[in-house]
Amino acid sequence: MRMAVFSVRSAASFRNQSALIYRAAVHFGYECEERDLIDRAVFPKERWDRLVSLIPLWPRYILDSVRVMAPWIAKSSSLYGPVDGPLTLNVQILEVLKNLEVLVPSQFCREALVRSEVHVKAVVPHGIDPQDFEFDDSLRYGRMDQLRKAYPGKRILFSNINPLHRKGLDHLAAALRILNEKRSPDWVFILHTGLAKALSLVPDLDKIPNLVIEDSYNVLPFRQIALKTIACDVFVWPSLLEGFGLPLLEAMAAKRPIVCLDAEPMNELVGPREAWLFPMTGLREEKWEAPGCLAQLHEYEPQSLAEAMTQALDNPKEGQEKGERALKRSKAYHYLKVYEPLVKGIG
């Protein structure tokens, strides 16, 4: 049995998930190979038995996927990936999409495509390998000891944010200013992001007290990000829009208590037992040209984020319990479990 996984390998999240699908395929007895979708395809001499194109459902990636999903290239093919909202594609691309087997990682994505009259074959959540979050004591506690020495007596809040408009950096900045005004500096917030892009969104971000910016987004190996996640006290996710929310799943696997918005698809992953959820105030739609969609931005007040972070800071025992429940819930997303039907074909 032969299988191929095409993905957008310039994006870390897609590269990581592609690797997990590859490993699942090998586990289930496939001879598998990974390809970058934007490279010129070298087609096999014999058809693949199974092909998965793992992409954000943007027009350019959909059209690139079509050329490798033809029936004379693979016996069965699936287009798998997230959307940011209902599609605004031209009629021709929509018709192409309607004739492909489409899989999405969340109910939020399914509902967006239903509004676009695109049939979704199944919801296949993204997967995680628990071993990626297992470290020996020298590595795990080395990072933690460094933080404790650098910030003695302070609780460590952490976030790993791609510096994009939809990720809520401006909301986070406002919430951190509120936190600085309301309480003593018994905390430090470590933000792993890309500094230049982040400053283009929030020009004075690096001036906020008690905020430490680690400028290495999309540079470090995944295990280094996992180590940063596991070495914090609380994982904070200020995002307004996700197609799935993979950093939340990573925080769950790291047994971290979470602060995040009570909106889809974030609350598909965690509820009040695993996280401090803060409320949304409304839905704002923006027409995004490159993805070809009406992006669904879940608005909220920075005050609500600040209050949720305060609850996390003030209740470490509750946070430990939330982290343990988050870890337990993450086991449902083991990559072999969620990717078995993707590899073998959705019935």
The coarse silhouette is: globular
What's the domain count?
2
SSE order, as H and E? Answer: EHEEHEHEHEHEHEHEHEHEHEEEHHH
CA radius of gyration: 21 Å
CATH-defined superfamily of the largest domain? Glycogen Phosphorylase B
Question: Strand percentage, roughly?
Answer: 15-25%
Number of helices in the DSSP assignment: 13
* Biggest sheet strand line-up: 2-1-3-4-5-6
Largest sheet: 6 strands, parallel
CATH architecture of the largest domain: 3-Layer(aba) Sandwich
Give a verbal description of the structure.
The chain has 347 residues and is α/β, with parallel strands linked by helices. It has two domains: 2-128 and 335-344, Rossmann fold, CATH 3.40.50; 130-333, 3-Layer(aba) Sandwich (Rossmann fold), CATH 3.40.50.2000. It is built from 13 helices and 14 strands. The protein has helices at 12-27, 59-66, 91-98, 107-115, 137-150, 169-182, 195-201, 222-230, 246-253, 266-269, 302-314, 316-330, 335-344, and strands at 2-7, 31-36, 48-54, 74-80, 102-104, 122-123, 155-160, 187-193, 211-215, 234-237, 258-261, 275-278, 282-288, 293-299. Strands 2-1-3-4-5-6 form a six-stranded parallel β-sheet. A six-stranded parallel β-sheet has the order 9-8-7-10-11-12, sandwiched between helices. It has a two-stranded antiparallel ribbon with strand order 13-14. α6 links the parallel β7 and β8 (187-193).
